[in-house]
Amino acid sequence: MSGHTVSSFDDELNHIDRLIRDMGDLASSMVADATRSLLQAQEASAQRVISDDVVMDARQRELDERAITLIAKRQPMAQDLRAVVAAIRIAADLERIGDLAKNIAKRVGSVDAGTIKTPLSHSIEAMSKLVLDQINNVITYYVTRNAEGLVSLREADELIDIKYTSVFRELLTYMMEDPRKISACTHLLFCAKNLERIGDHVTNVAENAFYVITGEQLPAHRPKVDETASV
Amino acid sequence: MSGHTVSSFDDELNHIDRLIRDMGDLASSMVADATRSLLQAQEASAQRVISDDVVMDARQRELDERAITLIAKRQPMAQDLRAVVAAIRIAADLERIGDLAKNIAKRVGSVDAGTIKTPLSHSIEAMSKLVLDQINNVITYYVTRNAEGLVSLREADELIDIKYTSVFRELLTYMMEDPRKISACTHLLFCAKNLERIGDHVTNVAENAFYVITGEQLPAHRPKVDETASV
To answer: Where is the PhoU domain (chains A, B) (predicted)?
Structure first.
């Protein structure tokens, strides 16, 4: 990433990195706001998350445009080229995180506050807290070029999967106890699943970021994705 | 895509197109096999879908590798560069379709044949049939450079969304009727949701393919994604 004779390649790559940081910050606030809107049944703030997704999409398009223009103009050699392609991929995962936060926000109207009992609320909040830490950490580690930090994120993702499995079982119990809550609980199930998928996208970002920093691949396969799919 | 003085650029782009067609064929058979395994509770064939996903991942890596090497070696100008970047994106969506088919296959063991009554089985089968048509069509339209065909796929995706909403409601009814089926039905809910998401990925492929053929963007936003999220 350094040592180019044409310094503007690095300048442009730095600009792309700033866009990634902006997208990461937006992804983080969208996930935090979507979860809070859900747990407190606040439709107005849910609506803001839905609008934020338009901003997210625009940022991704801007990043893509800049990245492709950079490749076309500077014609970077293999290693730099891979860094730019990795940036395009990271942006795509961050955009998907925004989509998933939006999907949580869209479900707020289908879940009335009464459905979410205190223990369930704590479980979902704890899960969302883990996911937020992951998003914030992956961006920090990418920006500060911390390869070891990135490796640690994959282990942290397993905690999210475990938490998801426990929320999944909790929700099944609520549904069996009170069939009138089945509809609301299925929406909560999708919200929990969305948080778990956000964790997977963070892992993808970590893999691409690791590659940018080290030039090496993390193994392509993660230990598992969704424990509930096989139990 | 034609008229290059260096004919090997086109040769290499054709090779990438062949890889996309192969990935599309594999995606299609994975979705068909996963749905059949689910509806007939066949764990052995579900296991094959799970193995197929390893092949899918390998094909995506091969395509990525070739595409990046092609850019680095040939340094294509803007329009050709965008075609190669679009191919990378199309491959990423096809790989995601494979992941979602695998996720359906992983749920086969959690849903015993008795849970799926005939009307529900017909609904899921009909949904899967619509999704399969979309996958097969998007690949055909991409390979034959049929821009109008690609536009028509976005409308067809709305039929999948409508079908998903109806399967979603059907499943809620079954859960309310018989709480012992709640666990199996939530797995079926995720399977139906996966089919709906596969439809979204086909739409992404159509957008990227349209861009390759026409050099123009289809509008970024689709009419809607999941009707059940807002009802």
So the answer is: 20-108, 124-208
* pLDDT band at residue B73 under the 50/70/90 scheme: confident
Q: What is the ipTM of this complex?
A: 0.85
Beta carbons of B167 and B124 less than 8 angstroms apart: yes
- Tokens 């086109």 sit at which residue? B10
Q: Which of A44-48, A62-66, B52-56, B216-220 has the lowest mean pLDDT?
A: B216-220
Instruction: Give the sign of the dihedral formed by CA A178, CA A182, CA A188, CA A192.
Output: positive
Q: In this complex, which of A81, A106, A183 lies closest to B71 when CB atoms are compared?
A: A81
Provide residues of A within 8 Å CB-CB of chain B.
57, 61, 68-69, 71-72, 75, 77-78, 81-82, 85, 88-89, 92, 103, 106-107, 109-110, 168, 172, 175-176, 179, 182-183, 186-187, 189-190, 193, 220-221, 225-226, 229-231
Contact A61 B220 (CB under 8 A): yes
Helices (H) and strands (E) in chain A, counts: 6, 0
DSSP for A68-131, written as a single string: HHHHHHH---HHHHHHHHHHHHHHHHHHHHHHHHHHHHHTGGGS-GGGS-HHHHHHHHHHHHHH
Q: What is the pLDDT of residue B2?
A: 47
Domain boundaries along the sequence of chain B? 7-230
- Residue among A88, A175, A226 minimizing CB distance to B175: A175
| Cα distance from N-terminal residue to C-terminal residue, chain A | 45
Look at residues B56, B48, B72, B73 and name the one whose alpha carbon lies nearest to residue B22. B56
Give me the mean pLDDT over the A210-216 stretch: 88
For A86-117, write each residue's pLDDT tens digit: 999 999 999 999 999 999 999 999 998 777 88
Q: Are the C-beta atoms of A39 and A52 separated by less than 8 Å?
A: no
d(CA B54, CA B25): 15
The fourth-level CATH superfamily of domain B7-230 is: Phosphate transport system protein phou homolog 2; domain 2 (1.20.58.220)
Contact state of A71 with B81 under an 8 Å Cβ cutoff: yes
